[in-house]
Structures are given as C-alpha cells and as structure tokens.
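Lecture notes, continued. The same structure-token format from the folding unit now serves as the input rather than the output. Read the line below as a description of shape only.
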C-alpha cells in the first residue's frame, strides 16, 4: 500500500484531473489537425498523457483512495474551428498539467512519485513549447513551468 499525505493526495488528484482533461482536449484537437506532423504529435502526446493518467490512478488506488473520474466533456471556453485554435487549447492543457505535476513535486517526499511528477512536468513543458513554436507564439518556452 502506498502512503499519501493529504497534501500529496490532493496534488495528485489535481494532476490526474488535468491529465483526464488533456486526453479529452487532445481528442478534440485531433479533429482539427490538418498536417500529418501535427496529427503524429497529437497521437504521441495522447499516449504520454494516458500513461501518466494511468500511473496517477494506480498510485491513488494503491493508497486506498478514490481517484477523480474523467468528465464526459470539458468546457474549453471558446470555439475551435481550425488547427491553430486547437493547438491553443493544447497549450492550455499542457499548462494545466505542468501546474498539477509541479504541485505533486512540491508536496511529496516519495521518490517514485517525485519521479513521475518530474516526468509529467517536463514532458508537458516540452510539449507546450513545441506547440507554441508550431503556431509561432513567442516566447515559446516559459520560465518556471507549472508556476501558478
């Protein structure tokens, strides 16, 4: 059985919620991907988000806690009608994941969970930077990823 402090459990549930949303947003964005390299990047990112989602769920369950469920849909706050708008949503989803995983890093001493959180934070930051480069947003790399 895994031990999770209240702070670590709350942070991990927030990161898991961000991962659920990211998987959903990537599914939405795939419908607007007009370039093969973008479709490929979306597929790779979805796989990484699913892996992190599954890991977070497993850790929460191993701690005898209930993980938050994915929502049937997410309010994206704006209309998506093309690839550029879809990529804007992906950048937001990655930013939310950065924040979630950074919070896990700040709230646990467990080495394995810290490793997962670092993986989540860095891969989200790299993907967000790549998406910003794809749509020409500058600066592409944000300082201190995941900082609220």
């Amino acid at each position: 059985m895994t031990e999770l402090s209240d702070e670590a459990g709350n942070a991990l549930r927030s990161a898991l919620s961000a991962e659920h949303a990211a998987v959903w947003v990537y599914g939405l964005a795939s419908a607007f991907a007009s370039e093969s390299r973008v479709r490929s990047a979306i597929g790779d990112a979805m796989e990484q988000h699913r892996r992190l989602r599954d890991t977070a769920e497993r850790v929460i369950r191993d701690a005898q806690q209930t993980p938050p469920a994915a929502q049937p849909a997410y309010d994206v706050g704006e209309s998506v009608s093309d690839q550029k708008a879809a990529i804007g949503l992906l950048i937001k989803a990655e930013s939310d994941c950065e924040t979630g995983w950074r919070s896990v890093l700040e709230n646990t001493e467990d080495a394995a969970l810290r490793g997962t959180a670092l993986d989540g934070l860095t891969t989200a930051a790299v993907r967000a930077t790549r998406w910003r480069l794809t749509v020409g947003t500058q600066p592409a790399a944000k300082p201190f990823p995941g900082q609220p």
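Point for the exam: The CA atoms of residues 15 and 100 lie 4 Å apart.
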